[in-house]
Amino acid sequence: MARRHRATKRELRPDARHGSTLVTVLISKVLQSGKRTVAERIVYGAIEQLAQKIENSNPIEILQKAIDNIRPKLEVKSRRVGGATYQVPMEVPHERQVSLALRWLVDYADGRKAMPMREALAAEIFDAYNNTGNAVKKRDDMHKMAQANRAFAHYRW
To answer: To bridge 46 with a disulfide, which of 15, 122, 123, 136 should be the other Cys (CB 3.0-4.6 Å)?
Structure first.
């Protein structure tokens, strides 16, 4: 891990169809083995299915609301103090919140083996939009763990 310079953040280009950087990041999370066109087909297909499920609404706003429902505000990080390891609750930076939310969304969609990835991703986004589903449960579990370990908050650095 380089300690000399901080890595510079590259500017994301919005995707071609919707003009959203969030969709670009989601495509990158779905991407496997460099097959970007396959990932784009999956994500755009899921967005189209969302638009059909919830009529008279913008599917990008639905995606944004789903991500907002999944984003974790707190997480625990291990901190070693005097030979003991404590799970210290920490606030999560915004970029990491979005990254974790998208990662959970794609992982749980991939875990739905009974259906194609396009349908599974649409179903997971729809569940997150309605504040249900596995990704929301994961966020709640993370918040419960942080709440349970709040006694160690004074070890924050």
So the answer is: 122
Tokens of 91: 């606030």
Q: What is the DSSP string of 36-102?
A: HHHHHHHHHHHHHHHHHHSTTS-HHHHHHHHHHHH--SEEEEEEEETTEEEEEEEEPPHHHHHHHHH
- What's the token pair of residue 61? 């706003």
Q: Are the C-beta atoms of residues 122 and 112 closer than 8 Å to each other?
A: no
What residue type is 120 in one-letter code?
A: A
How many CB atoms are located within 10 Å of the residue 97 CB? Answer: 19
Comparing C-alpha atoms, which of 108, 55, 100 is closest to residue 75?
100
Q: Can you read off the two tokens belonging to residue 10?
A: 């590259």
How many other C-beta atoms can be found within 10 angstroms of the C-beta atom of residue 118?
19
Q: How distant, in Å, are the alpha carbons of 20, 44, 62, 103, 142 from that of 131? A: 23, 22, 12, 17, 15
Could you tell me if 92 and 72 are in contact, meaning their C-beta atoms sit under 8 angstroms apart?
A: yes
CA distance 120 to 97: 22
> To 10 degrees, what angle do helices 59-70 and 36-53 make?
100
* pTM higher than the cut 0.70: yes
